[in-house]
Amino acid sequence: MIVFDLQCASGHRFEGWFGSAREFASQRKRGLLNCPSCGNGAIERVLSAPRINVGAAAPSPQAKTPEMEGKDAFAIAQMLYSRMLDEILARSEDVGKAFPEEARRIFYSEVPARPIRGRASKEEHDALVDEGIPVARIPVPTPDQLN
Question: Against a cut of 0.85, is the pTM above it?
Answer without folding.
Answer: no
